[in-house]
């Protein structure tokens, strides 16, 4: 079952490395990774993790999407989504030029914003990308028509937040950064400190992708400091959710940076806040926070820190609460697949990948780590495995 060359990150790295006139020793040194790791990644014996991709991309002066192959175009649905992405691009471009069209009451707009937020949490990107352009356009007009009212601006913030997440998942990194800038612009007008904190949370996506973990952590520190007054006394569930999510974002950044001490410190802080929140996980401002999501971040952090056995051990006590977003549940099984692969458990890897597909198929098919994990699993098998072959074909890794 041969892989298509342009779907294998290791082969892509090798191709760009040779085009840059670098040998493996030189690229490993510039990317700050070990030579043995680079060699294994290039031949498909080891999966490239987030920090490896970011380091190599930086060393080769490429955006990470050049290595992961995003945005993916494997079937007609991807081509259709690109047309809708172009429509989103147009709305983002005219953010300060509202139309003269009448807008519906704020209550109707709020209901639609709640619906697109649900579609995002359910990873229903096919429906979301169709609905988002027109709603964003209407939200923009509504906010401009009521410049002194905070609610239309808060709704516009939520629309931009959904757009940012969608564009990032579809692999349009540069456009996701544009939507983040629009989110920041709207948050400044919403008179809502939590909206501004969510803006910082979203902004960290670009730092993560670029491997700029130091500045990402500084941004999270600043965002938490700006919420300190909100945290005093008896903070609301909304404050605890947003503040805790900033810690979880820092967990991701620190673990990808290989900083175990900082990772553990933010995990402890997140657990304390989750205990204070009570009532399990909650969703506010588009962010999920609570004990279960904190544990998923712990599992992912162990994977990023190179301790797959610890990740698998931590996952034993994980039980997703009813109503936990599909995006979070699916992502957890993606990280479990990476952990199983790292310990050589091929059956466990495929099982976790199947579960991720069952929970959130669209997110799974578009996730670079799923494609990389599956590509390495295919490479490691010396004979065809029918179930794995079908999975790889579904992802678009084989024809």
Automatic annotation (TrEMBL):
InterPro entries named in the record: Cro/C1-type_HTH, Lambda_DNA-bd_dom_sf
Domain of life: Bacteria
CDD domains in alphabetical order: HTH_XRE
GO MF entries: DNA binding
Domain (HTH cro/C1-type) ranges: 13-67
Protein's name in the database: TlmR2
The gene coding this protein: tlmR2
